[in-house]
From TrEMBL:
<dbReference type="Pfam" id="PF00072">
    <property type="entry name" value="Response_reg"/>
</dbReference>
<dbReference type="GO" id="GO:0000160">
    <property type="term" value="P:phosphorelay signal transduction system"/>
</dbReference>
<keyword id="KW-0902">Two-component regulatory system</keyword>
<protein>
    <submittedName>
        <fullName>Response regulator receiver domain protein</fullName>
    </submittedName>
</protein>
<dbReference type="InterPro" id="IPR001789">
    <property type="entry name" value="Sig_transdc_resp-reg_receiver"/>
</dbReference>
<keyword id="KW-0597">Phosphoprotein</keyword>
<dbReference type="InterPro" id="IPR011006">
    <property type="entry name" value="CheY-like_superfamily"/>
</dbReference>
<feature type="modified residue" description="4-aspartylphosphate">
    <location>
        <position position="53"/>
    </location>
</feature>
<feature type="domain" description="Response regulatory">
    <location>
        <begin position="1"/>
        <end position="128"/>
    </location>
</feature>
């Protein structure tokens, strides 16, 4: 799942992940990301990876990250590993290091936009996510 309020970023990022064989759900804000995550848990079809933009309306990425981790912690199946989550931010977001560092234990990676095929390839290798083709 990719949560990003910018339509161009959503489309480009979907194309990148699709090139690796992933089916991608797109949402436009943190509230939709939380709801889509809840549905995936209820239907027992978990996401392989969630990418959250840090700055979005109707719950930003940090809020969505906290809520998703809370939902996971309260789920009945405690044997499952947390779903990998990557936080995305613009290059200007690099200045907000304190917010990024404070959430490091809750997420698996930080990505600076615009994303590229090389960055996603490195992320997938780091997370040991095989191509979905």
């Amino acid at each position: 799942m990719i949560a990003d309020d910018d339509p161009i970023s959503r489309r480009v990022n979907k194309d990148i992940f699709s090139s690796f064989g992933f089916d991608v759900d797109l949402v436009v804000n943190g509230r939709e990301a939380i709801e889509r995550f809840k549905t995936s848990i209820q239907e027992n079809v978990p996401y392989a990876l969630i990418c959250l933009d840090m700055v979005m309306p109707f719950f930003d990425g940090t809020y969505a990250l906290n809520e998703i981790r809370h939902i996971e912690a309260n789920a009945n199946d405690t044997d499952k590993a947390p779903i990998p989550i990557a936080m995305m931010t613009s290059k200007e977001g690099k200045r907000n290091r304190s917010s990024i560092l404070s959430k490091r234990s809750l997420c698996h990676a930080y990505l600076f936009k615009p994303l590229s095929i090389d960055v996603i390839d490195e992320l997938l290798i780091k997370l040991k996510l095989q191509e979905q083709t």
